[in-house]
Amino acid sequence: MYSTEKPRRVVLKISGECFCPPKERGIAMSSVMHLAEQVAKVARNGVQIAIVMGGGNILRGGQFKAANASIQESTAHYMGMLATVINGMALQDAIELVGQQTRLMTAFAMESVAEPYIRRRAVRHLEKGRIILLAGGTGSPFVTTDTAAAQRALELNADVLLKATKVDGVYSDDPEKNPHAVLYPELTYDQVQQRRLRIMDQESIAKCGEHQMPVMIFNFRTPGNLERALQGERVGTLISEK
Ligand code: UDP
After folding, report:
1. How many domains does the chain contain in total?
2. Which of 12, 129, 160, 240 is most exposed by smallest CB count within 10 Å?
């Protein structure tokens, strides 16, 4: 049973909204320090942590294109990918300030600020206890950092993919619109597909299912949640084979 095991290696997807207070945009170092403290604490206990940063606090390609006819959509997506590097740089300094070693790795070359992402090197960093920060998403436009997180969780042989968001988990309906919406503590990959629950893109959740990669979605603003999730407790919604 997942809840009784301590994951040895986790991929943590942190949405851009975790980098600033609710309803704000950009980066607030107080929010970033709060994340850093929680992550570093768990890393000190021996959990290997790879973090995939979102960029929505700065720019989302699809939204930017929709509001700006004069930009090409692919350019807007690359801008979104760059936003994740900005978040990664902020998180790197914050984590190192609280005494944990890190490596920032990017999916596309940015050699002055980060290492290129090379899977075998990433694994080595994890084995040495360094927290790795994976920026630049997949390096390709038209997808999101959720796709990148699923991809990295699979290729780094993570025990679980953790998705830190502003909602408590997966609901039967939009809880802001439907007061009868219920939170699912557990779901199977098949249920996610059949009920058309929007957690991450269909292809990524299907890939996680194909390779039995558990996915857990939880609210990072609930005190203690991030630490508990990183340590292997079930919080929010756990999606697995059974
Ligand atoms: N993005 C992309 N390819 C990727 C990952 C991200 O093109 O592999 C772009 C996309 O435009 C996305 C933006 O980067 O909207 C920021 O990422 P995301 O929306 O996933 O951030 P989050 O919602 O998690 O904050």
Report:
1. 1
2. 129
Round to whole Å and give the CA distance between 26 and 55.
9
pLDDT higher than threshold 80 for residue 227: yes
Average pLDDT, the chain: 94
Count the neighbouring beta carbons within 10 Å of the beta carbon of residue 235.
22
Model confidence at 5, pLDDT cuts 50, 70, 90, reads low
Q: Is residue 1 part of a domain?
A: no
Residue 4 falls inside a structural domain: no
CATH of the domain at 206: 3.40.1160.10
CA distance 236 to 171: 10
Name the amino acid, one letter, at 121. Answer: R
Q: What is the pLDDT of residues 102-160, one digit of tens each?
A: 999 999 999 999 999 999 999 999 999 999 999 999 999 999 999 999 999 999 999 99
Substitution candidate for ligand 1 out of 91, 144, 203, 220 with most atoms within 8 A of CB: 144
Query: Can you tell me which residue has the tokens 């390709």?
Result: 140
Residue whose CA is at the smallest distance from ligand 1 atom 7: 141
Q: From the alpha carbon of 141, which atom of ligand 1 is closest?
A: 7
Give pTM, 2 decimals.
0.95
